[in-house]
Amino acid sequence: MQRDLFSFERDWYEPLRAIRSLGSQAPSIAHQGELAAARRQHLGQFFTPDAIAAFMWSFVSGWKVNRLIRILDNSVGSGRLLQYADPERHAVYGVDVHADVIQQCQKVFEDVGFHCEFRQAGMEDIHPARFDIALINPPFSIHLESPHLQTLECTTWGRYGARTSALSHNYAVHQALEAANIVVALLPITTAESMIAGEQGDRSKRRAAGLFELPGDAFKLEGANVRTAVVVFDRYRDRPSDFVRAVVDDLAKPGPDIGLHFEDRSFGEARLRLQKLDDSVPFITRAVTGDKSVMVSHDGRRIRLSFACGFNEAMVLNTVLVKRIYSRDGHRLPRGFRYSGQGLLDMETYLVQDDPVAAFGQLLDRIGSVGGNPQLAPGFMEHFRRRMRRSARQAIPLRHVAWTTGAGSRDQVSGIAKETHKVDATRWASPLIKAGDEVQFDREADGRYRYELHGVWYHLSVDELNARFAVENVSEGWEVVHEGLCARFPDQAAALRSRVKALGVDQWLDWEFQVDDLVETLLKPTGCVVAWEQGCGKSRLALALILVSGAKHGLIVVESRLIEEMLKEIGQLPIAADQVKVIESAADLGDLRQINLISYERLRMPVDKAASARVTYAHRLRRRIGLLVADEGERLANPTSDQSRALWQLSARRRFVLTGSPIPN
DNA sequence: CCTTTCCACCTCATTCGTGC
DNA sequence: GCACGAATGAGGTGGAAAGG
């Protein structure tokens, strides 16, 4: 049944041959700057021309053995490289990121009677093993980035840590070498040469059996302009000098016999080992009972649905989760996100709505719409309302008073235009206001000012208004921009103030604004940024925050050189020595006090470098801190720096950042 | 005289490597 | 960790040189 090489009659492969690759359909680029964008479009998909496929196949076509020969293509496309396989002699396996072609491959190869497995997956999603032959023409120069990458020589440091980034064609070859005894690969000439020269690890050099330079126009029909070579790797080589290097001028001739070592025995089943979600087994195994109740409970911020009936579970989950989603095209999903409706099961989603209860009601309606009967777990609504109050309070801005001259201090003002200007400078036909015109303004609820011109209402911010108009009938003075939390929650504020007194904190936090700010910030349930000028007593505020909040374990993070100063400051205050601890060694971690001090440097340092680089002080302190105070908050400007990440890793319940310069110059 | 091949150069997003 | 610079390209173009 095997077709003759180099004869291209109509046959079973015809439907797949009709597919055109994305790369060959892509419009040509105008200059190099569009290269990367074009690659994102066509996924680096260029199919192998039949003549080259035949040439590559000719190296392995002579192998006859009394079992199925297992062939892998880790970027199979439309299966061009597998078209000379014989259902009675070969089992074919392939993956590709492009779903359309994969489905068609599976159908056509299956119909011919192949033992085959085609899956929609990137080569980064599989860990193939136990193949006899890998025939590959990988996408070139696509940047792979996945936590699932195998630890091959070609991997580098990536977004997900060490060995999580690689170049597609390099990775494809190394993966094939790992998975198969014999590898026939089509590569850019530069990569091919670096592999046989041993620049990509000794193993690829030792296994290299031949390099065949293809004509420069080999991929012209596919619309690609690249110099390529076919590289053949053996299981092993008897003598390195057996290496064959040749220039192919006639693609209609088979490759030379280079004495490949074919292994007649086989060990175990060939496997693609997909790392993605496996949908080959049912996800829902609950019995169908007809009980439509859906128990709605929560686990932290996650909303849990529990079911009594498998059918009901399927119906409800399908309508809530909607569909499976994947990261693609550089768009990375939040960790743990698999379904487009998953956000509906996150309580925080509802808390940020204008009306959280109504929004949550929609989730219950949605469950009801497919026959579910939602029942709230005892205490669920109480928890939900508590979280609502908490998030509402966190959203209220701190008290803010500003010195204003001009508009801003009244609800209705009139202004005289300083100079002739357009009402909306961004619009061409915008009406004009002439210098000296008088305009009446009304303040809106959002703080902007509204005025009418030729029957149309326009809006101006306070700053714009003051810039454009000389404002009359106002005086300058302090204006309260935001009332703040003390005014909104007077009872809680009073309770905090009496606590401050009871603890005697007001004895040493003796400037009036210090206690005011302390109470204001402590009313924030999860914390805030406190920007005080130098010399206002930030270190005292840090101590007061911990003491007044009543946290069991508070942590103050400071620069290492400031720890001494901090201790000196504490020495002057009526704070018992056994309340304070400076964390300097692993032993200190087991003995936390109410006030703990640590430096940024130590926080991100491994506790025991020899044992693990991952277990840092921050890691050991994770979730043990009730209230965290980060001094010199400007050090956290870069959210990806080690010290910022260490601070996040702590996951303290309440977090306060103190800084003298919140806005960098 | 016409066609093909070769070569230098263009341009810029992206990645990779290095020194501090 | 960070900033910065070098390297690179499933490329493209125009003109010179070589070939027929």
Automatic annotation (TrEMBL):
Coiled coil: none
Lineage: superkingdom: Bacteria
Record-linked SUPFAM superfamilies: P-loop containing nucleoside triphosphate hydrolases, S-adenosyl-L-methionine-dependent methyltransferases
Gene3D superfamilies noted in UniProt: P-loop containing nucleotide triphosphate hydrolases, Vaccinia Virus protein VP39
GO MF annotation, one: ATP binding
Signal peptide: none
Protein name as catalogued: Helicase ATP-binding domain-containing protein
Originating organism: Caballeronia fortuita
Lineage: Bacteria, Pseudomonadati, Pseudomonadota, Betaproteobacteria, Burkholderiales
